[in-house]
Design goal:
By secondary structure, this protein is of the alpha/beta class. The protein has a single domain, classed as Ribonuclease Z/Hydroxyacylglutathione hydrolase-like (Metallo-beta-lactamase, Chain A), CATH 3.60.15. The chain is built from six helices and twelve strands.
């Protein structure tokens, strides 16, 4: 398999509403985390930070020169790999211990990073999948249900939406109708443990919370963004299958 360079590891696309989409094109789409940069007046937000096999800050000039709060939608390996590069870091209390003390087990890297199959091109350097791990990045801010993340001119409400993971959160900007949904809802195969009844009950409840939320656009943790009608269709399909 071809080896990528650090300069080609990330791509960016500027969207509307002061949002920039950052992603890792050489990771297979199912495993490829969406990294969302949100421009604010006093500080910017970074929602998730990718797998961390290449320095994010070194390759993305957009992330230099301004205060940034790096928010973890949850603490799976593909979402928190470069959180340690940012001095201000936020996560739900239920997953703060993982962010501070990540391991291959508690970030589920041991399940998915066992060989090179998640890549279309290999990371640069001496890549060895079984040696991959996520650096510690203790939270400087906790985001329980009902918290507000403020940039000076933008306010995003924190929704605690367990199911995909215990501390999964979404950020909702009511003024613009933008939802940063993490891995709770995205336009692709959703990840859950159907055999875990308690987890599935949580996921059903989380989906019901979002069903009638007046969103305009959803920026999920994977796959392209979508609108309210598509969100409702995804949620209704999930509820039809699991709201028993």
């Amino acid at each position: 398999m071809q080896i990528a360079t650090p300069e080609t590891w990330y791509e960016t696309r500027r969207l509307s509403d002061g949002v920039t989409w950052i992603f890792e094109p050489h990771i297979q789409e199912y495993y490829r985390c969406n990294i969302w940069h949100v421009r604010g007046r006093d500080r910017d937000l970074l929602v998730d930070s990718g797998m961390g096999v290449v320095s994010l800050r070194a390759q993305i000039p957009l992330l230099s020169g301004r205060p940034i709060l790096a928010v973890a939608s949850h603490t799976h390996f593909d979402h928190i790999g470069t959180h340690h590069e940012f001095s201000d870091r936020a996560v739900h209390p239920d997953e703060a211990e993982i962010l501070a003390h990540p391991s291959r087990a508690n970030t589920v890297a041991d399940k998915y990073v066992k060989d090179d199959s998640i890549f279309t091109q290999l990371p640069p350097g001496n890549w060895q999948p079984l040696l991959y791990d996520v650096p510690p990045a203790p939270a400087t801010m906790l985001l329980p249900e009902g918290s507000v993340v403020d940039t000076g001119d933008r306010s995003l409400e924190v929704f605690h939406l367990p199911g995909h993971s215990p501390g999964s959160i979404a950020l909702y900007e009511r003024a613009s109708g933008i939802l940063f949904a993490g891995d709770v809802v995205y336009d692709g195969p959703l990840a859950y443990d159907e055999g875990n009844a308690a987890e599935m009950r949580q996921y059903v409840a989380s989906m019901k919370r979002l069903l009638d939320l007046p969103v305009r656009v959803v920026h999920g943790g994977h796959y392209p963004s979508f609108g309210r009608d598509r969100m409702r269709a995804i949620i209704r399909g999930f509820l039809d299958a699991f709201d028993r």
